[in-house]
Amino acid sequence: MFTLHEILAKLKNEFALSRKGPERGSWFVYTILAILVPFTSSKTSNILRCLNTLFGNAGINKKRFYTFMASPKIPWQRLWRRLWQMIDNPLTDGRLLLALDDYINPKTGKKIFGCANVFDHAAKQNQSKYPWAQNVVALGLLKMIKGRWACLPLSWRFYHLKKSVERINRENIGPKLTFESKLDQAAAMIANIADVFASARIIVVTDSWFGNNGLFNPLRHQLGRCVDLLSRLRSNNNIFELPKPQNKSRVGRPRKYGAKIGTAASLAAKFKHLASEYIVNLYGRERTVLAYERVVMLKTIRCAVKVVWVYRRTQWVALYSTDLTLSANQIIAFYGARWKIEAFFKELKRDIGSAETQTRNSQAVKNHLNFCMMAASVAWIYADRIAKTPKRRHAVEGRRHFAFSDVRRSITQAATEDNFSRLFPVPRKSTINSFVAAMLRMAA
Of the residues 85, 95, 257, 406, which has the fewest C-beta atoms closer than 10 A? Predict the structure, then answer.
């Protein structure tokens, strides 16, 4: 209980500078808890219902609460920076592991902010390849918590198609927007996080769509050599040898690349007999992996990289990192942990229920997604700080670690204790208009 109070109190203090700070701060804290408590999905109406029935916040008027959920005055920038600073031991092997990916959030209403017909590369045969949905670029911290990998959401951006931005600005639908590509948005988010973790070496773990020079070049331009990429090669990527030392008597510019040695697919077959076995902590347990590593040159990154070919029974995967000091074990383990951002998307959309929200207004949509993502980060910070590991409620064959739902249940037990309401008094009635109420009583 005191661990949860310590986390939420620091977030509540960010409201202290505003006129309605104490009241708004309490509303913010209990809204985070209402999202995490497995009461119902995180629709705004359900959050209000949870606040009234579970926490006894009977003084929250429906209209005032909806105004709060759509308020442009919630200091999200300060809140996120405060949350980043609250993460204990964020580094893994001396590096800050940032998982980068995007996801879509299908909707049905035509007037919902951020929606467009976006391409869904994971659409099944009975689903539309261009659903009406929101497209979100998200960035999370990969961290080992109580013996298992977890992804703590750190930042996000709505991606708008260029034609959607032009239409919104032309028709005056909501605030004016400036078009940014996904790569530009990702680089800006990583730069903001690097500003807080100034002395940390950053590794961005991402899939092959983001893992190219469109992201790597602006990152190196802004942050220098303290940032590296860890991604996956496409099967048709050309691979070159390291450049050989040039004879001083030769005239001309030194070669940047050595001889072409093949594609990722052709070299996978060529190097298979040279592969060695590695024991890697992968997907929740120690596994024996057959892999081969080599330092080569890539034109998609325009620098030397370490490539690790991982061989399965019938398939192979080629991973690469611009950090040449990483071992093959680390590259395989870190990229395997990247899947936790996909698990986070499922937790966000289904477990917490952010996909079911019906908010339309641009500010309300942004606030709701901020609330849901910050609630997920608070849950993992809480799980990392408590002494005992949360017990797994539902046994699953092959899985021995606790789940996100177990963390939510532990938070619910702490938040519903009698002493918790003493640490965070439930806002009954606003004291802002107490002078007006006293004058009315005198007049009566």
Answer: 85
Within 8 A by CB and 6+ apart from 209, the residues are none
Calpha distance 140→90 (Å, rounded):
11
Does residue 20 contact residue 26 with C-beta atoms inside 8 Å?
no
Q: Dump pLDDT digits (tens) for 69-102.
A: 999 999 999 999 999 999 999 999 999 999 999 9
| CB count in 10 Å sphere of residue 277 | 9
Query: Residue 56 is which amino acid?
Result: G
* Helices (runs of H) and strands (runs of E) counted in the chain: 15, 12
For the chain, the first-to-last Cα distance in angstroms comes to 45
β-sheet bridge partners, residue 227? 202
Distance of CA 249 to CAs 191, 245, 259, Å? 43, 12, 21
Which helix (H) or strand (E) segment holds residue 154: the answer is strand 148-158
Beta bridge partners of 106: 133
Helix ranges restricted to H, 229-301: 264-271
At residue 48, φ and ψ (nearest 5 deg) are -60, -40
User: Which DSSP string do the residues of 282-314 spell out, in sequence order?
Assistant: ETTEEEEEEEEEEEEEETTTTEEEEEEEEE-SS
pTM of the model: 0.91
Computed on alpha carbons and rounded to an integer, the radius of gyration of the chain in Å comes to 25
Structure tokens at 227: 């940032």
Pair 142, 340: CB distance under 8 Å: yes
Residue 188: pLDDT over 90: yes
Q: What is Dmax (Cα atoms) for the chain?
A: 102
